[in-house]
Amino acid sequence: xxxxxxxxxxxxxxxxxxxxxxxxxxxxxxxxxxxxxxxxxxxxxxxxxxxxxxxxxxxxxxxxxxxxxxxxxxxxxxxxxxxxxxxxxxxxxxxxxxxxxxxxxxxxxxxxxxxxxxxxxxxxxxxxxxxxxxxxxxxxxxxxxxxxxxxxxxxxxxxxxxxxxxxxxxxxxxxxxxxxxxxxxxxxxxxxxxxxxxxxxxxxxxxxxxxxxxxxxxxxxxxxxxxxxxxxxxxxxxxxxxxxxxxxxxxxxxxxxxxxxxxxxxxxxxxxxxxxxxxxxxxxxxxxxxxxxxxxxxxxxxxxxxxxxxxxxxxxxxxxxxxxxxxxxxxxxxxxxxxxxxxxxxxxxxxxxxxxxxxxxxxxxxxxxxxxxxxxxxxxxxxxxxxxx
Length: 389
Ligand SMILES: NC(=O)c1ccc[n+]([C@@H]2O[C@H](COP(=O)([O-])OP(=O)(O)OC[C@H]3O[C@@H](n4cnc5c(N)ncnc54)[C@H](O)[C@@H]3O)[C@@H](O)[C@H]2O)c1
Prior knowledge:
Blueprint: E1 2-6, H1 12-15, E2 23-25, E3 34-37, E4 53-56, H2 66-69, E5 75-77, H3 84-99, H4 102-110, H5 118-129, E6 141-145, H6 149-160, E7 164-168, H7 174-179, E8 185-186, H8 190-196, E9 199-202, H9 216-221, E10 226-230, H10 239-248, E11 251-256, H11 261-264, E12 269-271, H12 280-300, E13 320-327, H13 332-342, E14 347-355, E15 358-365, H14 371-378, E16 383-388
Parallel strand pairs: 1-2, 1-3, 3-4, 4-5, 6-7, 6-9, 7-8, 9-10, 10-11, 11-12
Antiparallel strand pairs: 13-15, 13-16, 14-15
Helix pairs in contact: 3-6
The chain binds nicotinamide-adenine-dinucleotide.
The site of nicotinamide-adenine-dinucleotide has 33 residues, from helix 3 and helix 6.
């Protein structure tokens, strides 16, 4: 029986993916092979030595000390794109809230609650609406910063709304480029996107080059009255610069999933309580994807959507499967293959991939590996994890 420890409320549809005949799923499991979690923080926890993998049902992995786990051979997965549609739909909501005085007009209607005379109420409704007129999205320009799983969906949606779309992503992946409408035009740099966009939406991770990217300099390059939507991460935006841009009119509105003290009471800032991925469908998609990735790793050694290991997958042959992880330096793979050859062990199939400082190999061999063989492989210099799958 393989054992999975869960934290947080993982959608049942995901938990049901673990075949009951060879998986035990239990929040209190003491010697888990893998962990499936959402936002539970692992930084201050001692991880049982049995753990081989951790799957985060979601995109960010800030709650997992990934760099501590990599040298131990623990593979950390996330579920990129599983919540992309949920965020895309909240961007649509934000575009509409940012272009029409919707929330303000609702607040106005709430002030009419005590009006009991229908004719008088109607008069006040008609008189009030003049303050809340807006503009349409059609024909306006949306700048999309980051064209990954979410950004690409947002860009395509905006094209279908009749908007012009400019994208900026210096590290656009081939896979993401394939998803993108050919009508999305490319900005060479952030400032050129800001100068041309009526609306700007951020879809980048919070990493060194992006933290504080929306700062005073960025706002001075922006088109007057621009609407900024940030459903990615709070750290991307310099709060003081946003407040000053809202006050000066440089920013027409700010909509964000990350409330902060200074913005909560600002009339031109609309804040959501981190709602981006909070849909039933997104939680289910993340749980299913996380569970499937763990099953494929535990049962086959395959790695898909890891944040610390390379993507490696191989169809099973009739042989016995081994996997090993090592420092990404020359000769380690050769040493292992020589070792197998010296023991007259035939290799049926093999795949080896590297990522940054580490390499990972799946190898199918003709005969059942003995504990002595596993021991020998583990003792090869620079090999830090060996597993019989
Ligand atoms: N509000 C929420 O609940 C919620 C939900 C899901 C994701 N998110 C956030 O949204 C972000 C995007 O998610 P995703 O699934 O699209 O991620 P993703 O990894 O698919 O895409 C991120 C994109 O940003 C690009 N990028 C990196 N640095 C850049 C830079 N300096 N300038 C421009 N582009 C840059 C990358 O090349 C990549 O294409 C996540 O990192 C996460 O922080 C928030």
